[in-house]
Design brief:
single chain, about 150 residues, mainly alpha, 5 helices
Length: about 150
């Protein structure tokens, strides 16, 4: 199980690294605007089938993130890391439930695409998951050095 956790941690750290870098540099808003323009263009080009793909992406992300955090809670034997994992799980539960609600509103015409993402929450969530993944990757090294 620990190799799966490590693989997911690498995947998450790598996947979020560019966004976290933009957040730390203060350029997150530029990246977010570019991302929204790309999503809008893709949705227009894809037409009605984009709805299924967006939901597939949402559910895939939810399963990967929850699976990763579950593995972290059940695999790691460190109270501090388990506490951090629980905090990240809370942040993700909030973020993903809000995103689900907003996607539903968007696909039912209640809000615009620009209102789907709450960027402050996305930034906190991304920083939390990225930091957690780095800690998970460093945890075996810290045990080995001790």
């Amino acid at each position: 199980m620990s190799w799966i956790l490590t693989l997911l941690a690498v995947f998450i750290a790598f996947g979020y690294s560019m966004y976290v870098r933009a957040i730390l540099k203060g350029d997150a808003d530029l990246m977010e605007k570019s991302l929204m323009a790309t999503i809008a263009d893709w949705m227009v080009a894809s037409g009605p089938k984009s709805r299924k793909r967006v939901w597939f992406t949402y559910w895939s992300s939810l399963v990967i993130e929850l699976g990763y955090l579950y593995l972290a809670l059940t695999t790691l034997d460190n109270m501090a890391l388990n506490f951090i994992t629980a905090a990240v799980l809370g942040i993700e539960a909030y973020n993903m439930s809000k995103l689900h609600q907003r996607l539903w509103w968007f696909f039912h015409g209640k809000i615009t695409l620009g209102e789907v993402f709450v960027w402050k929450v996305e930034r906190v969530s991304s920083m939390a998951l990225f930091t957690h993944a780095i800690l998970v990757l460093l945890f075996p090294l810290a045990n080995w050095l001790a």
